[in-house]
Amino acid sequence: MDKSLKISLLKGLYKIRFFEQRAKQLYQEGLMVGALHPYIGEEAIAVGACAAVNKDDYIFSTHRGHGHCIAKGADIKFMIAELMGKETGYCRGRGGSMHICDRSFGILSSNGIVGGGLTLAVGAGISSIYKKDGRVTLCFFGDGAANLGVFHESLNLAGLWKLPVIFICENNQIAATTSCSESIPVDNIGDRAVSYNISGSVIDGNDIEGVYFKVKERVEAARDGDGASLIECKTYRQGPHCMVISDTRSEKKDEDKIWESVDPVNRYEKKLLQEKVINLKEIENIKREILNILDNAVIFAKNSKFPDPETLKDYVYSN
Ligand SMILES: Cc1ncc(C[n+]2csc(CCOP(=O)(O)OP(=O)(O)O)c2C)c(N)n1
Fold it and tell me: How far is CA 49 from the centre of its chain?
């Protein structure tokens, strides 16, 4: 992997980490409209996976989707505006944190419905086969979503029709307050791929280069007509499920300690320092630049208007 890609991956990690920290702050200040599900701890999956596709490839994101949008190229200022319910946001303030999308970067939807992106990704895959456009779709979802009927239906069709869709399961060990050990009878969700005759992998989701290379391999295979894949990325949600539901399990503190040592941002920063790809001064400059972009985004969003209540029904589907 060349030096510029490594630095760009590290920048992506910082961007998402700082964005999420700022979003939490805005939520606590009462400036955010709606729910917030932070992605802190899982950043390597979004950044590694999105670096392995083209700008016009599609992604489907989740309720915990800021990281996917940022990694796919969304503009932070329109995202912050959306979080604050402003007219200048990606969904003109009508979608909020869980529904950010923008076709110009291939973000076809984020989805507040758990597993809601799975069937849509199958639809995108069918369209690519039909139009022969050579695009590949990445579909992100959690371990909880992997226990829904829609997971089976989607992977079944994707396997049958050899669709160019990469299903990326972000196994952060827990669905809201239900841990995998209480809800899943197998050790690896990735092993379920065998049921659909598609490629299945189980990887370390906190190893950004590992994510990049695995997704790249499966994306290239999909473009060559090899069909769908399931990649399970093992990771850990460092904070609460969302800003109103905390995780009160007694074992959480011990788990936090174990996963702290493989925090994807610190881990990659350390790796690039050791490899002498970057130095501390350069890291400091990158961080300052990103924090500056965030400061300006917050100013932009604060200065933007809320939608006019008269236009409530514009841009939404209603009867
Ligand atoms: C169909 C549906 N059921 C329940 C919920 C409430 N809910 C929101 S997030 C969540 C947990 C999802 O867990 P997982 O898929 O593992 O994703 P994670 O939150 O861990 O990223 C639940 C149950 C929902 N939004 N949609």
Answer: 9
Per residue in 174-228, pLDDT tens?
A: 999 999 999 999 999 999 999 999 999 999 999 999 999 999 999 999 999 999 9
Alpha-carbon dihedral 138, 236, 5, 117, rounded to 10 degrees: 10
How many whole angstroms from 7 Cα to the centroid of ligand 1? 33
Q: What's the gap between Cα 245 and its chain centre?
A: 20
Contact 184 CB / ligand 1 (< 6 Å): no
Query: Residue 62 CA: which ligand 1 atom is closest?
Result: 21
Maximum distance among all alpha carbons in the chain? 59
- The arithmetic mean of pLDDT across residues 116-140, rounded, is 98
How far does the centroid of ligand 1 lie from the alpha carbon of residue 113, in Å?
7
Closest C-alpha to 36, from 242, 210, 198: 242
Nearest Cα to Cα of residue 35 among 149, 176, 212, 171? 176
DSSP string, 145-196: GGGSHHHHHHHHHHHHTT-SEEEEEEE-SEETTEEHHHH-SSS-GGGGGGGG
Ligand 1 centre to CA of 237 (Å) is: 13
Cβ(143) – ligand 1 distance below 6 Å: yes
245 lines ligand 1 (CB under 6 A): no
Question: In this structure, what token pair is assigned to residue 39?
Answer: 């992605």
Atom of ligand 1 lying closest to residue 143 CA: 16
Q: What are phi and psi of 168, to 5 degrees?
A: -115, 105
